[in-house]
Amino acid sequence: MRKSIVMKLFLLTASLCTVVIAGLFIVQSVFFKQFYVQQKVGSVQKALTAASREDGNVKDARSAFRIEQQFYQTYNAWTARLDPLGNLKYTDDFEIEVRLENDSDAPSLSGKSIGIPLYAVMDVEALSDANPLRPDFFIKSGARIAIEGILIDNQLFPQRIGRSASNLRAENRLENEPLVRKEYEVVPRFSSPTEYHERYPSVLVHGTVTQVRVPNGSNESRYENHLFLERIKAFQADLLYGDFNDTSDTVMDFEENNIPYKIVLKRLTNQTGSDGFLIAMTSLQPVNEAANIMRRYYGYIAAAALLLVLLISFYYARRVARPLLQMNNVTQKIAKLDFTSSIPVNSDDEIGSLSRSINTLSRMLHVHIVRLEQDIAQEKRLEQTRKEFIAGVSHELKTPLSVIESCLYVLRDKPDSPKRGYYFTAMEDEVKKMALLIADMLELAKYESGTYRMELSPFRIDVVIANVCEKLAPDLADRRLQLHTRFTPSEVVANPLRIEQVIVNFMTNAIRYTPEGENIMVSTNENEETIKVCIENKGTRIPEDQLEKIWDRFYRVEGSRQRSTGGTGLGLAISKQILDLHGAAYGAANTVDGVLFYMELNKSGKT
Predict the structure, then answer these.
(1) Which tens digits make up the pLDDT trace of 167-177?
(2) Residue 273: which residues within 8 A CB-CB, separation 6 or more?
(3) The pTM of the whole model exceeds 0.70
(4) Mean per-residue pLDDT, 264-289
(5) DSSP type of residue 558
(6) Is residue 574 within 8 Å of 440, Cβ to Cβ?
(7) Quick count: other Cβ atoms within 10 Å of Cβ 217?
(8) Gap between the Cα atoms of 192 and 203, Å rounded
(9) CA distance linking residue 345 with residue 338, whole number of Å
(10) Which residues on adjacent β-strands are paired with residue 250?
């Protein structure tokens, strides 16, 4: 039902809006942008016509720069005046005067002084006082330079300038790149290079710089528009090589960095003929921005209309299909085992009856699934507890059983041995230890299943440590280990039997991994609220990346701490469980030449 109504309304409104939006975009893309460009170009052309009438007001570089600034501020376009050969006029503030040497290859230039506009071969920033390389620049008064260029009507148009003829291809040369590129473009048009040079003679002359003029202050910015100057030089190259012959106003397209530009050329004439050109260049980026803004504006209108239509159609579709939509949403959640939602029942018809049935089914499924998950979780905990119990008992019972087995072998081989009573006593002690150990493991397993609670009481920790050290004295003597103790009378709140078991595990671990003849240090440090028990042994250190893993069940450190040293890997795991029951801080750390195990127990009265 939802599909038949909502989809039909959606298709109808989407088709209508698509037609409207398409029409708006067609009109905008075909007419608006063209109209805007035509208006922009027409405005610049009229401005150039008006500027041509005021050409007589321009006398020098300063007045030319002022008029160019006014033109840009008014029409948002750059403009410049060119002479009939395409040179930028009024550049006497940015040029050099060169006294040419006598040269048989260029007799028409021998001994003459010529002015070379520097904008054609370099950037004005190179001669700025702020340029740290200016003192090393070879263009300076009195310097001898080499000039390579083309000779047209006995006028030299420099292509390259260098310190000498050998430097004309060096990186620090000055070059009119558009003119050089144009030469490479024109040469293939001739049948041979000789024919080209007959038409456009190339000359190489030398001369001495007699004067360097550099613009100052704001006038310098006239030569900082490198993009516009490059187009002027490119136009001059086309003009000199005969690729520009238009006698009327010309509009050209140009693009740089994906930004389109329009170049407008107006030829100036006087009574004697051509008097030069007015050139203007304007960016069309504002046109594209305006077109994009209009496109977004139409998009907002179309989106608003589409939204309004969709809201109206959606209202009626939802009014009819709301109960079925609610059933669909709730049943999808039930399929994903999400029973947090129910279907509102607002009627007594067939839909209302179906909604009540689905709600009842959802509640029943929820109750049964929750109960099943709880049973599964409980079963997993019990299974894990059984596994850990069996592993722990196997580990801790191994030593007592070995002692009993050894005593039985001795009694079997020597039933009349004078130590018969001693062996029975030893076996009785081990049986008692096993009984106590089994009881402890059952309590530990009970805790891991979530039902065990540790019974705490105050006791002297130094007494417990002393008793453990006394019990383990034979093991220390067997391995010729030196035991050093440093502890003061201190009372803590914990389970004394479990803490003793932890200390035994720490001490046994230290004895097992300490080389013969080395030292074991046992100490207590009193803090504000806790007593820190430290057991440090000299010997092999534990890799840093394994310090956290040694508390895992059955984990063994590689290297020197191998199975041959004894133990099954459960002692530290059991200690961890006991200390976790106490909520005590504990850990292991490498020292300079060994390993330190520690635990922190609450002082009496600080629980």
Answers:
(1) 888 888 899 99
(2) none
(3) no
(4) 80
(5) S
(6) no
(7) 6
(8) 18
(9) 19
(10) 265
> What are the structure tokens assigned to 363, written together?
């509640």
Exposure letters 18-33 (e unless 16+ CB within 10 A, then b): eeebeebeeeeeeeeb
**Residues 77, 44 contacting (CB under 8 angstroms):** yes
Phi, psi of 255 (to 5 degrees): -135, 135
Pairing between β-strand 113-117 and β-strand 155-162 as defined by DSSP bridges? unpaired
Burial class of residue 116 in the structure, from the number of CB atoms within 10 Å of its CB (0-12 exposed, 13-18 middle, 19+ buried): buried
DSSP bridge pairs for 441 = none
Enter the tokens of residue 241.
């090589």
Residue spans in the chain of domains classed CATH 1.10.287.130: 347-453
Strands (E), 501-559: 519-526, 530-538
Closest residue by Cα to residue 10 from 218, 425, 381, 313: 313
CATH of domain 347-453: 1.10.287.130
Query: What's the rounded Cα separation, in Å, for the pair 66 and 57?
Result: 11
Q: Which residues contact 21 (CB under 8 A, 6 or more apart)?
A: 298, 299, 302
Q: How buried is residue 134: exposed, middle or buried, by Cβ count under 10 Å (0-12/13-18/19+)?
A: middle
Amino acid at 236: Q
Q: 455-602: which CATH architecture? A: 2-Layer Sandwich (3.30)
Tens digit of each residue's pLDDT (9 = 90 or more) over 530-586: 999 999 999 888 888 888 888 876 566 654 444 444 444 567 877 888 888 888 999
Neighbours of 371 (CB within 10 A): 10
Alpha carbons 86 and 136: distance in angstroms, whole number: 31
Spatial distance between the Cα atoms of 605 and 233, rounded to a whole number of angstroms: 95
Q: Would you say 276 and 83 are in contact if contact means Cβ atoms under 8 Å apart?
A: yes
- pLDDT, average across residues 483-507: 91
Tokens at residue 180, please? 């050089």
d(CA 442, CA 138): 97
